[in-house]
Amino acid sequence: MKITVIGTGYLGAVHAAGMAELGHDVLGVDADPAKIAALAAGRAPFYEPGLPELLERGVESGRLRFSTSLAEAAAFGDVHFVCVGTPQVPGSDRADLQFVDTVVTELSRHLERPSLIVGKSTVPVGTARRLTGLAAAAARPGLAPDMAWNPEFLREGFAVADTLSPDRLVFGVAGVDAEQTLREVYRLALDRGTPAFVTDLETAELVKVAANSFLATKISFINSMAEVCEAVGADVRLLADAIGQDARIGRRFLDAGVGFGGGCLGKDIRAFRARGVELGVGDALEFLAGVDATNDRRREKVVQLAREHLGGNLAGRRVTVLGASFKPDSDDVRDSPALYVARALWDHGALVTVHDPAALENARLAAPHLGYAADVEAALRAADLVVLLTEWRDYRELDPLLLAPLVSSRVVIDGRGALDADRWNAAGWTVHALGRPVAPAWDVTPIITSAVADVQSSQEEAVA
Ligand code: UGA
Fold first, then answer.
1. Were both Cys, which of 75, 97, 321, 410 would link to 429 (CB 3.0–4.6 Å)?
2. 54 touches 18 (CB < 8 A)
3. Looking at domain 2-199, which of 3.30.200.20, 1.10.8.420, 3.40.50.720, 3.40.50.2000 is its CATH number?
4. Which tens digit of pLDDT belongs to each residue from 120-141?
5. Would you call 68 helix, strand, or coil by DSSP?
6. Catalytic residue status for 229
């Protein structure tokens, strides 16, 4: 099929490459010429495992092209996917719909044949129906496009797999033609047995925000339990393991820590709440304010712990922050808890050095005043405190014994429950994971002393 994907951010770039991989002819469109030039050359403009290979294959096959022109998109495609951003309006909780509105209006103005516009962006419920009117008003007589909503559930870091093998498809449609077209677009996935839910436009829009609200709630639930655990010396990890064993609860998304960030969960729950108020059902979504507040408190908790570990004053103290992206396997620093904490520590006077395996460049752009180090050893040198805030595999695999001599104080705050505390304790580190009792460093002095004594006595025996 001839498909366009408008907006080539994290969602659109992967969707465009994925559609080409599934055999469609795809034109990706974005207003940013630099992004389009990179994509056209087969280069991913951001870090996403597997995307460079997918892009390269698509571009080489000739099935994946890129452009900055909506007129070209209108001339090329039968199905147009709208993947532009819906960021939070500054100073408000609402979603900014200007990009969605502009794309749908402009595209409709240029349409020359019957087409289907499919929204993928996360929008407040009611948007698709409003856009149907906008599109009809902009299009030439008789060429008003059909409108569908097909929310996206991909996770950054797993975006390629989530796009090629989704766990479900949701087709929000206003008629059977749109459903048939979407079935054709996703034929390969449907043939493999992927469940498809055909709904009205409003339900499809709601599925997306309801799913993200549930995920955010689950994370804040376990983080609330972490606060209680901290008050009584209990262990939130063991608690999560035990409740997660119940299949009705499930263990996934019950990892306590510094909380959620990124371009989706936070903004989506805020926009959903704001929309609920507009719809007169604000009370029904009031709990999301608590979800947000719990999330904020976890970030502040790390700052408080850092202060406590450094004797109540951060001024002039060297703090190494491991991680800048909002989660591992991503270079996305939007609303990153790691960067939030790094900034807050700096605000309190700490000398902050940040390390991240992929997000250093984006972090430096977002927070140029912080210190950065390209390798972990350099980042840790002479640190008074280490704070781990993104659970990259590289950090889980660090050897605490080798790192011990680099720092001036062997204390690590584990904001993601990522470290094997026993291993770090055995190497002389104190580990303070959120929601868990402090794991004090083992006293390694007797071990070292007795090892030295052993060596000396065997040398004496040898001499004798
Ligand atoms: C999220 C959803 O998971 C996707 O299904 C959705 O498609 C996407 O938003 C979107 O709306 O586009 P994503 O933002 O990539 O995906 O990241 P998640 O994997 O959901 O993680 C979000 C945040 O929650 C991260 O900061 C992560 O560290 C944190 N998290 C996750 C926890 O603190 N604890 C957990 O147990 C899980």
1. 410
2. yes
3. 3.40.50.720
4. 999 999 999 999 999 999 999 9
5. coil
6. no
